[in-house]
Design brief:
heterodimer; A: 470 residues; three-stranded antiparallel β-sheet; B: alpha/beta; nine-stranded mixed β-sheet; disordered C terminus; glycoprotein (chain B); transmembrane helix (chain B); Gaa1 (chain B); disulfide bond (chain B); GPI-anchor biosynthesis (chain B)
């Protein structure tokens, strides 16, 4: 329970989090409501066991990892029960009705609210400089184009481009970045807001952006102002290797650093669900260390494989795109805000016959079944609207009453003096065994041994040989 | 450790080395030669590959279709040149300006050390014309150079035509990130050197030239072009520069990839590329190419105007149109349609790829040998050849040292065997001290060989009925002869009590000295070092006083020791130049050889290079050069 207190202290739940209209439905249906201490402890033990067995499937079906229960005990969660707007409607909708029609409506509503997010963010990173890495900029811009087309506004997109290809003097078509041969598709478009550019694209800036540890002077466009109801798309491309991605020829980010950054984001409640896509050589190595919940990851290639380029264009003189992102772009071009394509469709993009490398994905940390996850949950910012002709009588719910009662309780709880927690148990979090010390004979024994040796020596040679020793 | 510190074992080892020395030496020498010849065969030659990311593929579209325009320019140039009798500067300026370049001229003059053979003149003056194509969207911090040298006998009008047509085409493109300098130089290499010195604001050859009015940034790469007829059958690429310097292998790879892409016929050392590596023909052909390259590199002469660029750390090569493969006849220059390969297209592609460069060319090899255009031998694979040759000297020195050691320090051993030489602990020191005089004298003769012929040629021509060139050669011979006749103080070396010891010590020192010199030479110019080693090592190893009179017998050894610093390099150079010229006449005579100035310049540079290996403390310009070259060498490794 130290963790809970940590977060109570560092990140008080009000008022930022209350405004996020966290729905009662989401909470209750996921069984957060009355998670007690014992339950949390049990769950964590269970989780450890499962980890040991590597039974990831089991973990996937468990409603929510135990840590989140630890972090969000009833008292704190309840503080956020200020239901508003549409989600409040859902909360009312979802409570069991006896009639069949009511249960249908409930199903619909569940479909309606299945993602549980209220806002979308995208962090799109190109880490490569230099003209011959044109394709990486085109990759990133093509994803930018797609997410913008599907409705994420520039204010919710953090675009990091390490080089300016459109205005590179070597570009025969200034102010354009093409993704297709013969100038078919200009992904640079008419308005591009690059938030981090050229030498600002560093590992430090990227990690600060993700974890929110940004100087207060940082402008709003350079911040990831996400919350625990945000679905975040993180797309990265560049030159990588087994377990790292190079940033600008001078530094690199490792998969462990990235995994820790995501864990921090989770602990700071900066995302609801996270989709990580990376197009680089040996891309799968970048997501294999992730351990935070609700992350789905895709990569262009397996460990030991190179990701290959596509669309050589002799007029521009470079490769325009990488294969994986090229086919992802083709896939995304078919998506519209209402399309019902799900993540399983995205996993099918760019089979080995087209990609040459083998694209990989990882879903064991993700709670929902990928087939229920719409592409637009991450790539779009879709305001859900469903017009229904049926009249639904909204009844005041007892739980709401209960929650308001708990709110009062929590106010009392907050009266307690807050304490700082102990250090974060890092070893426990990343499931590493502490190193066993080698056995060492006790100091006294060694001292005695030396004394014995010296005594035997003087016994044998006498004290007059002292001068030969010193 | 125990092997050498234990006296008994040490003596056993010594005996083994002494007994097996002769076969080991022969074996090592043969191994060196065999290794060298084996360099042309596939396990030791590797395929070339592009290391530079920025020039990764040939994926650029060559749009140049100005062959007809090039031909018109060439014809006009030839007409104007014939009319004026020199470089038609005004016409060139006008044409370059009409094409859209910033045009500047530079005048230069140089007093020749030897009179011009055709015009009987000492003073040469000329004008270089160059036009700068400014990169439209980049700061002028970097540049590329396309240069055409115009000599008195090689008109190169087709090359000038192609240069102008390319300039016109390049002017229409907007993707340049580097300025491109189109340079037409007069008097072949003299003009190139004058322009380069002015561009870099140095003066190493005493050239008088006007300062450059227009500059572009640091030169990243240069291509020199020599085309002498409308119809060429193939393009020959020359890489060997001054003192055997080579451009980065990536530049050659670039040329080679565009050769392949365009289907151009490209040659190296005037030889076609071997197609069949499986049978014996391919490697045999590559042996020939390799030997030609080694001879060319050992001469130290630049194999084209690009050679002078290399000194300024500008990667450069020369492309030369050859007309000798009649069976593959292409009208290379003037072809207008899109599918036919032209050198213009290849040049456009190369320049576009060089334009993509972000740093200097540095990823690939700087030290290599080329048995074929698509194969190379890296320094790690060719150095053992020279290493084996130098090992002979080491073995011989070891043998001598052991003999000396046994005679002086191991009295009981020596006494047991011969019983003649008494233990003389002082002779060792006296022997070494007595070596100083002959060594100093031979060094002085070497220095005289290096300095006097050039200094004394005017005196010689005033007093004797000889020309300057003859004067230099005769002075060389005179100093050689005089050097041999000088008293070397060798009588002191000869010790009456141990008659062999004197020459042995002298030869020991001479061998080690020679080995060091050759090793240094080999590192910077493998070809020269290897050829010197191949010829000098047997002589140095075998020479030995045969007669009873030690003082006389020891002079060959003294020669050896003197030979290394000065005379051998000089004489070997003359010999090699002669050889190379003989070989050079096979396809196309080096354009520069007609002009008296260049060989002298080359000798000068070459000697400077040798000197900064041999006697870095002697010559002040040498010091300057070595300081200039030091970081460069470091970089290149």
């Amino acid at each position: 329970m130290e963790l809970k207190k940590t977060f109570n202290v560092l990140y008080p739940p009000c008022p930022d989090y209350t405004g996020n209209s966290r729905s009662a439905e989401a909470r209750t249906s996921k069984g957060w409501g009355g998670a007690g201490l014992e339950e949390a402890g049990q769950a964590s033990r269970e989780k450890k066991k499962k980890k040991k067995k590597k039974n990831r499937a089991a973990l996937r079906h468990s409603p929510r990892p135990s840590r989140c229960r630890k972090l969000k005990p009833a008292s704190m969660v309840d503080s956020c029960f200020v239901s508003q707007g549409l989600t409040a409607l859902a909360a009312f909708l979802l409570f069991p009705f006896d009639s069949l029609a009511a249960s249908q409506i409930e199903d619909q509503a569940e479909q309606f609210f299945r993602s549980g997010h209220t806002n979308n963010w995208a962090v799109l990173v190109c880490t490569s400089r230099f003209w011959f890495n044109y394709r990486h900029v085109a990759n990133t811009l093509s994803v930018y184009r797609s997410v913008k087309r599907l409705g994420i506004p520039d204010s919710h997109i953090v675009l990091m481009l390490a080089d300016d290809m459109a205005c590179n003097p070597r570009n025969p078509k200034p102010a354009t970045v093409f993704s297709h041969k013969n100038m078919e598709l200009n992904v640079y478009g008419d308005d591009v807001e690059v938030d981090y550019r050229s030498y600002e694209v560093t590992v430090e800036n990227f990690l600060r952006l993700l974890t929110g540890r940004i100087p207060s002077s940082t402008p709003r466009s350079k911040r990831l102002l996400s919350d625990d109801r945000s679905n975040i798309l993180i797309y990265m491309t560049g030159h990588g290797g087994n377990g790292f991605l190079k940033f600008q020829d001078s530094e690199e980010i490792t998969n462990i650093e990235l995994a820790d950054a995501f864990e921090q984001m989770w602990q700071k409640r900066r995302y609801n669900e996270l989709l990580f896509i990376i197009d680089t050589c040996q891309g799968a190595s970048m997501y294999e260390r992730f351990y935070s919940p609700n992350i789905m990851a895709l990569a262009s290639s397996q460990v030991g494989e190179d990701s290959l380029s596509h669309q050589p264009d002799p007029a521009i003189g470079v490769h325009l795109m990488d294969r994986y992102t090229f086919y992802v772009l083709e896939f995304l071009e078919e998506i519209n805000p209402a399309s019902q394509m799900n993540m399983n469709d995205l996993f099918q993009v760019c089979p080995k016959s087209l990609c040459v490398s083998t694209p990989g994905h990882r879903t064991d940390l993700f709670q929902r079944d990928p087939k229920n996850v719409l592409i637009t949950d991450f790539f779009g910012s879709v305001r859900k609207v469903e017009i229904t002709t049926e009249t639904i009588s909204l009844q005041p719910d007892s739980r709401i009453m209960e929650s308001s009662y708990k709110e009062d309780q929590m106010d009392e709880e907050l009266m307690e003096p807050l304490k700082y927690a102990e250090q974060l148990p890092v070893a426990q979090i990343i499931h590493q065994k502490p190193k066993l010390k080698d056995w060492h004979p006790p100091g006294g024994f060694i001292l005695g041994l030396w004394a014995l040796i010296i005594m035997v020596f003087f016994k044998t040679y006498g004290i007059k040989h002292m001068k030969f020793i010193f | 450790m125990g092997l050498l510190s234990d006296p008994v074992r040490r003596r056993a080892l010594a005996r083994l080395v002494l007994r097996l020395n002769a076969p080991l030496c022969v074996l090592s020498y043969l191994a060196g030669i065999a290794w060298f010849l084996a360099l042309a065969f596939p396990p030791l030659t590797q395929r070339t590959y592009m290391s530079e990311n920025a020039m990764g593929s040939t994926m650029v579209e060559e749009q140049f279709a100005g062959g007809d325009r090039a031909r018109v320019f060439a014809r006009d140039f030839a007409v104007h040149r014939r009319k004026s009798g020199a470089l038609p500067v005004a016409w060139l300026e006008r044409t370059m300006r009409s094409v859209g370049l910033e045009v500047y001229t530079q005048s230069f003059s140089r007093k020749l050390p030897f009179p011009d053979e055709t015009h009987e003149r000492y003073m040469v003056s000329g004008i270089n014309v160059y036009g700068i194509l400014r990169a439209p969207r980049a700061a002028s911090t970097e540049s590329l150079v396309l240069t055409v040298p115009c000599g008195s006998d090689s008109t190169n009008s087709q090359a000038v035509g192609l240069l102008l047509a390319l300039a016109a085409h390049f002017r229409g493109q907007i993707y340049w990130a580097k300025d491109i300098i189109f340079l037409v130089t007069e008097h072949d290499l003299l003009g190139t050197e004058a322009w380069l010195e002015a561009y870099h604001d140095v003066n190493v050859t005493g050239m008088q030239s006007s300062p450059l009015q227009g500059r572009a940034g640091a030169i990243q790469a240069a291509v020199a072009l020599e085309l002498n007829s409308d119809v060429v059958t193939s393009l020959d690429v020359a890489v060997e520069g001054l003192n055997g310097q080579l451009p980065n292998l990536d530049l050659l790879n670039l040329f080679q990839t565009f050769c392949q892409k365009g289907g151009l016929l490209c040659t190296l050392q005037g030889k076609l590329q071997p197609q069949d590596w499986a049978s014996i023909d391919g490697p045999l052909q590559s042996v020939q190419t390799l030997l030609l390259m080694v001879l060319q590199q050992a001469s130290g002469r630049p194999h084209g105007p690009h050679g002078l660029f290399l000194r300024y750390r500008v990667e450069a090569l020369t492309l030369r149109g050859i007309n000798s493969f009649r069976q593959y006849k292409y009208d290379l220059v003037a072809v207008g349609n899109r599918d036919c390969p032209t050198p213009g297209r290849a040049l456009e592609g190369m320049f576009r790829k060089l334009n993509h460069l972000l740093e200097r060319l540095h990823q690939s090899f700087f030290f290599y040998l080329l048995p074929a255009l698509s194969r190379f031998v890296s320094i790690g694979l060719y150095m053992p050849a020279a290493g084996f040759l130098l090992l002979v000297l080491g073995l011989k020195a070891l043998e001598l040292w052991m003999q000396l050691h046994e005679a002086g320090v191991g009295p009981e051993e020596a006494g047991g065997i011969s019983g003649s030489s008494p233990p003389l602990p002082l002779t060792q020191g006296v022997g070494l001290a007595s070596l100083v005089a002959p060594l100093l004298i031979s060094q002085a003769v070497g220095l005289a060989l290096y300095v006097l012929p050039v200094l004394g040629q005017h005196v010689a021509t005033q007093h004797f009925p000889v020309t300057e060139a003859e004067a230099v050669v005769l002075t060389l011979l005179a100093i050689c002869a005089a050097g041999l006749a000088l008293p070397h103080n060798t009588h002191r070396v000869a010790n009456p009590q141990a008659p062999d010891r004197g020459w042995m010590a002298l030869k020991l020192v001479a061998l080690i000295y020679l080995a060091l010199q050759l090793a240094c030479t080999t590192l910077t110019n493998f070809s020269l070092g290897f050829l010197l080693a191949a010829t000098m090592v047997p002589a140095a190893a075998l020479v030995k006083p045969s007669g009873p009179r030690c003082p006389l017998g020891s002079w060959p050894a003294v020669c050896c020791s003197r030979g290394a610093p000065g005379s051998s390099a000089c004489s070997a150079w003359h010999l090699l130049t002669f050889l190379v010229r003989l070989l050079g006449s096979r396809s196309e005579a080096p354009a520069a050889s007609a002009l008296g100035g260049e060989p002298w310049m080359d000798t000068w540079d070459m000697e400077l290079a040798r000197a900064d290996l041999a006697q870095p403390q002697v010559h002040t310009p040498t010091l300057a050069i070595s300081a200039h070259r030091g970081p460069e060498l470091c970089l290149r490794r």
